[in-house]
Design goal:
With 358 residues, this protein is α/β, with parallel strands linked by helices. 38% of the residues lie in helices and 27% in strands.
């Protein structure tokens, strides 16, 4: 069955990942409509991907498609997801699913009422190296001593040039309203909506570190660790471009996560490491913008009086595999691997981490 999808938002993630992969999977998807406020971007992408149903506002495409792929700004996600469900559509929504726990609860309830699929774009759960580490974990977290995550991120500048379309024709009133709406949601979530707080919470915690927390949550769940773990620390600095958080696990072990935006560098490094008494297991992710660059799963342990190291590399694209999964969820009834309840857990923990910094 081919799904008619409407893509909402024609920015970086849509142009770099979702539109190309959707267009390649013609046995699964047809890009039936596109909503994008910039006429320049909208018409160029329509021509590039053969999309004739082009809309300035997402409401115009709700009656033309079977499913939405939501790539719009984070502060608009909840409104669009809820409108899509109300129209009887399945929804794939980029992370973060929303900004407030109130909206997360509303999305879960609307998904249940509509009996439709909502899948959140935390794509690392679909990485084959993550799947390998998940399958090989010990049976419990009893011997887990420490979890460490560090990401230094130069963002997208090293990887993209003029091929990413940017429109300077979006109405100023719409830009201001979108920013105002995001700030109001951030204020509801954490008590302040000034620009640095919005950058720290919405962009850095919810927009970036959520990927790594989602990976950690998946691995801890496989170990039988009670979730959510106790949040015992959180901080942000450098105008919200650097953030960290700390969890205490049931056996007293700690998990520490840090994401640092380093725009003056061109090096991306992302490592998630679980330290057990008997082994150290890690995932080393490439920049998500580098297609077919391998994720490395590494396991080090004592064997025959020496340190034995095993490494597995995986080149399959998680962004591609998550769309295949979405199709299977809609057409075959496959259980969603990244549902709204999981996104709610991530948002709950990141909100608590942020509040630790206040």
């Amino acid at each position: 069955m081919t799904l008619r999808v409407g893509v909402v938002g024609g920015g970086l993630i849509a142009q770099a990942m979702h539109l190309p992969y959707l267009s390649e999977k013609r046995d699964r998807f047809t890009i039936a409509a596109l909503a994008e406020p910039s006429r320049i971007v909208r018409e160029a992408l329509g021509a590039r991907y053969g999309v004739s149903a082009l809309h300035e506002d997402y409401r115009g495409l709700l009656g033309e498609v079977d499913a939405l792929v939501v790539c719009a700004p984070a502060g608009t996600h909840a409104e669009i997801v809820l409108a899509g469900l109300d129209a009887g559509l399945h929804v794939f929504v980029e992370k973060p699913m929303c900004i407030t726990l109130r909206d997360a609860d509303a999305i879960v309830a609307a998904r249940d009422s509509a009996a439709r699929v909502v899948q959140v774009g935390t794509m690392k759960r679909y990485d084959p190296a993550y799947e390998r580490m998940l399958a090989e974990l010990p049976e419990s977290a009893e011997t887990l001593r420490y979890v460490n995550v560090v990401v230094n991120d130069p963002e997208f500048e090293p990887y993209f040039g003029p091929e990413i379309l940017r429109g300077a024709d979006v109405p100023r009133e719409l830009i201001d309203a979108t920013r105002r709406g995001e700030a109001e949601q951030v204020e509801e979530a954490v008590g302040a909506g000034d620009p640095d707080t919005v950058r720290a919470f919405s962009e850095s915690f919810l927009g970036s570190m959520i990927h790594d927390l989602n990976v950690v949550h998946g691995l801890l769940e496989r170990l039988g660790e009670p979730l959510p773990a106790q949040v015992v620390g959180g901080a942000w600095w450098h105008e919200g471009r650097a953030v960290s958080g700390e969890l205490r696990l049931a056996n007293g072990a700690r998990a520490e996560l840090a994401w640092i935006q380093l725009l003056a560098t061109h090096e991306y490094d992302e490592r998630v490491t679980f330290f057990f008494d008997e082994s150290a297991r890690s995932l080393h992710f490439p920049s998500p913008w580098l297609k077919q660059s391998p994720t490395v799963y590494r396991r080090a342990e004592r064997r025959d009086g020496a340190n034995a190291v095993h490494e597995w590399t995986a080149h399959e694209e998680a962004f591609s595999r998550e769309l295949d999964h979405f199709h299977a969820c809609v057409t075959e009834g496959t259980a969603c691997r990244t549902p709204p309840e999981q996104a709610r857990l991530d948002i709950e923990v990141l909100t608590a981490m942020f509040r630790q910094s206040l």
